[in-house]
Amino acid sequence: MENQKSALTEETLDPAEWGDLQGLARQIVDDAIAHVRDVRDRPVWTEMPADKKSVYAAPVPNGPMPLSDVYGELCENLMPYPMGNIHPRFWMWYMGSGSYSGALAEFIAAIDGSNLGGGNNAAAFMDTQVVNWLKQMMGFPDTASGTLVSGGSMANIIGLTTARNAKAGVDVRAEGVAAIPRPLRFYGSDQVHSCHQKAVELLGLGNKALRRVPTGPDFRMDVAALRAMIIEDRKAGFCPAAVIATAGTVNTGAIDDLAAIGALCRDEDLWFHVDGCIGALIAIAPENGHLVAGLEGADSVALDPHKWLHVPFEAGCALVRDGGLHRDTFAVHPEYLEEKPRGIAANEYLHDYNLQTSRAFRALKVWMTLKEHGVDKFGRLIDQNIAQATYLEGLIAEVPELEMMAPREINIVCFRYCPSDMPEAELRALNSEVMLRMQEEGIAALSDTTVGGRHCLRVAICNHRTRRADLDLLVRETLRIGAEVVQG
Ligand SMILES: *Cc1c(COP(=O)(O)O)cnc(C)c1O
Predict the structure, then answer these.
(1) Between the CA of residue 63 and those of 7, 66, 200, what are the distances in Å?
(2) Contacts of residue 402, Cβ cutoff 8 Å, sequence gap at least 6
(3) Would you place residue 5 in the very low, low, confident or very high pLDDT band (cuts 50, 70, 90)?
(4) Candidate from 14-28, 306-320, 413-427 with smallest mean pLDDT
(5) Average of pLDDT values for 266-292?
(6) Closest by Cα among 255, 254, 272 to 263
(7) Counting atoms of ligand 1 from 1, which one is nearest the CA of 249?
(8) Which residue's CA is the closest to the ligand 1 atom numbered 5?
(9) Rounded distance, CA 276 to CA 300, Å?
(10) Which of 98, 109, 121, 432 could form a disulfide with 361 if both were Cys (CB 3.0 to 4.6 A apart)?
(11) Residues 170, 161: Cα–Cα separation, whole Å
């Protein structure tokens, strides 16, 4: 009697009828396959109409709605209006184009439901295995440590925090940055990613502690200038602590001279961090791997599986050569998180290497895509993107109205439409208009930037669906839209 009563009043999120769920779940998977299969037939991007946008102003629902109706709303108001980065002609900013196995993995990870803060469970062992695989791919020793994080920005913060604590000269965890005897100085090129500014600000060092080393015409860090800055800072009473070398800058894809910077760091006793969010994975590419030689000597590396491994967002990874220093930077064991010899907690806590406590099961999507395709395939796809960028550079060279704006080293091409001798401001307006119309017409997604003080269009081919014909089309459409804009 009592039991029956509670069965009537106690609620759960599980469905009353599991059978109903089966039909809907199958429908979602079928639609998802069609969505990815037919992506090329859709515009890269479609602006969301105002009346559709307004559904996202609706207030919080207090009552229920059948799941099939909820899904129906998504089909109407979400799926037709994505960013577009799974499309073969999306080359904006820098991101991966997704993968079906990665998407299934996200689903399975959520169903498994494990919290990757740690524990004695398969998901935790898989997390450690994926970090070990990434170490192997980067040529890091077994004794190195690592952690999966939300993305490259967080991976850089993990590396730079470890660097700060290792070089501070005091116990920063106990005493704080105010106790650091000589102010720390970090060095990155003038092309360093904006996340490093956030990192040094967050670390309590301040933006001025990140010195921007000039780059040459190839946008690589000037190593002689770096050396001079270190000497100058020492003389002025600062403590040069770490160099952030970039393997693949956002603007142009330039790769700093990792071997030379690594050697300088060893000579000067500085921490050698590599921001490899774009380029670290080039290490696995048979034709281009040599471009990142020296990466394997870094004290820490940030890399981004949600870029060139194409796993769905979010997935970044920090690797640290000295696992002990890494752990010393983040490990803390309150009474409710003690290590146990047996049972569910009988494993190293993974959050000891990370700022988060609860952690997503990110490892599965990396594990599943690497298992399905193998590392060799990803190496070939990276080479393929670089070859496609070389091809685009060749197309640009054949057209007098198009001009390369920076040397192309990997998969990023900076160019502009320049039909006649025009002032810089007019060229900026013209090229911005070409970029925006290209997006609004759903043809291709490019971004723009400024390199060496001059505005340009920027194509970053981190996309396993791009074909050379897409690049032919890009050049044709740039010329067509450019001529239209000029005619007014
Ligand atoms: C993408 C990128 C980052 C930031 O990574 P997120 O995954 O976006 O957080 C940092 N550095 C470089 C060079 C990048 O390209």
Answers:
(1) 21, 10, 46
(2) 396, 415, 416, 417, 418, 475, 478, 479
(3) low
(4) 14-28
(5) 98
(6) 272
(7) 13
(8) 152
(9) 10
(10) 109
(11) 14
Could you give the CA distance from residue 380 to residue 215 in angstroms, rounded to a whole number? Answer: 30
Is 250's C-beta closer than 6 angstroms to any atom of ligand 1? yes
The answer to whether the predicted template modeling score (pTM) of the entire model surpasses 0.90 is yes
Domain count, the chain: 3
CATH number of domain containing 175: 3.40.640.10
Residues of the domain holding 28: 15-44+46-81
**Nearest ligand 1 atom to alpha carbon 193:** 11
Please work out whether the CB of residue 252 comes within 6 Å of at least one atom of ligand 1. no
Do the domain assignments include residue 100? Answer: no
- The pLDDT score that the predictor gives to residue 209 is 98
β-pair type (184-189, 210-213): parallel
Å from CA of 412 to ligand 1 middle = 14
Whether residue 470 has its Cβ less than 6 Å from ligand 1: no
Nearest CA to ligand 1 atom 14: 277
Q: What is the pLDDT of residue 397?
A: 98
Within 193-250, strands assigned E span 210-213, 239-246
Q: Ligand 1 within 6 A of 127 CB?
A: no
Q: Outline where 304-409 has alpha helix (H).
A: 305-308, 323-330, 363-373, 375-398
Q: Which of 250, 309, 317 to mutate to test the pocket of ligand 1 (most atoms within 8 A of CB)?
A: 250
Which CATH number do you get for residue 396? 3.90.1150.170
Q: Is 161 touching ligand 1 by the criterion CB < 6 Å? A: no
User: CB-based contacts of 67: which residues, under 8 Å, 6+ apart?
Assistant: 15, 21, 24
Q: What is the pLDDT of residue 141?
A: 97
pLDDT classification of 9: cutoffs 50, 70, 90: confident
User: Is residue 195 within 6 Å of ligand 1 at its C-beta?
Assistant: yes
Q: What is the structure's pLDDT at 338?
A: 87
Co-location of 61 and 205 in the same domain: no
Whether 1 has a pLDDT exceeding 90, the answer reads no
